[in-house]
Amino acid sequence: MITAPKQKNEDKNLDLTLRPQKWDEYIGQKNIKDNLKILIQAAAQRGQPIEHVLLYGPAGLGKTSLAHLIAREMNTNIRVTSGPAIERVGDLASILTNLMPNDILFVDEAHRLNKMIEEVLYPAMESRTLDIIIGKGPSAKTIQLDLPPFTLIAATTRIGLLSGPLRSRFGGIFRLDFYKEEDIQKILERSASLLRITLEPEAKKLIAKSSRFTPRVANRLLKRVRDWAEVHGTGVITTEAANKALALLEIDEQGLEPTDRKIIDAIIKKFHGGPVGLQALAAATSEEEETIIEVYEPYLMQIGFIERTPRGRVATHMAYNHLGLVPPAQGQLV
Ligand SMILES: Nc1ncnc2c1ncn2[C@@H]1O[C@H](COP(=O)(O)OP(=O)(O)OP(=O)(O)O)[C@@H](O)[C@H]1O
Ligand SMILES: [Mg+2]
After folding, report:
1. CA nearest ligand 1 atom 15, residue
2. pLDDT confidence of 330, banded at 50, 70, 90?
3. Is it the case that residue 126 has pLDDT exceeding 80?
4. Which of 15, 202, 220, 268 lies deepest, with the highest CB count within 10 Å?
């Protein structure tokens, strides 16, 4: 799964090395940047922390990077945690009571916060108070602690799994979109120069085309192609190096990897083009439902290869053509 945008261990260092350090280095997502700059400036003028921010969108598009940039811009500390890491109310209480005024608390994978934790978060977000219940039964008492002013920045790949009440407590909700190809090219240029890689312009285009419009995938491919170029040549990334390395990784000119092709192949051949439900598709491809939803489907939908209908996933004509198959006659789709 070389192009799966989810962070893998091999990405951790690469993500850190290549993480944009200034607004200018954060390519694309102009609308989000403009909105965030206003939130930040308005807060600064009022002398308050910025409103709580929710960032959502597919993996590897730059949510964590944005959270760090906001902290940098506000000149504040950022405390990083995640939904699954906060298991008990006590965990959250200790994080919150240890915040310094105006700190940013970054909660990644916010859709995995459990209900109990969410309920403690509501008053913390709204009125900066922490309600803690001490004891059990009739002698239980609630004590209320005041918290310092802080900003919660939450990130999720699955906005649909976030509860309504939690969503409604954010002052800014931003959806990250897939990048334009030219933006991915700019990201590749920056990464190549940071990693001291010579990247020929045509090769850059090829890698950009294969990167699922996703910065993390682009950076990972750059590294893999560089490895190929070092083993087979001088390390310079030429068109030939890019072509051969991508072929070796079984990535086609649409950026599809074997699993993507397996998924559209299954929809077409096993389910006559669909519609097919997620469960059946997962069973037919031996992939996990969550992986299909989070990793494969967003990109396949983005490039117009599959569509989601109320009755399930459907393969489009483009998907048939890509596999060299004849699409059914007009009217039979969907
Ligand atoms: N706008 C951008 N400009 C330049 N590089 C970027 C941009 N967005 C992301 N990147 C690069 O992609 C890497 C992955 O981004 P990041 O970790 O912020 O994604 P994410 O949305 O938090 O992913 P996940 O959902 O897996 O947590 C970053 O380390 C950075 O190198
Ligand atoms: Mg992240």
Report:
1. 62
2. low
3. yes
4. 220
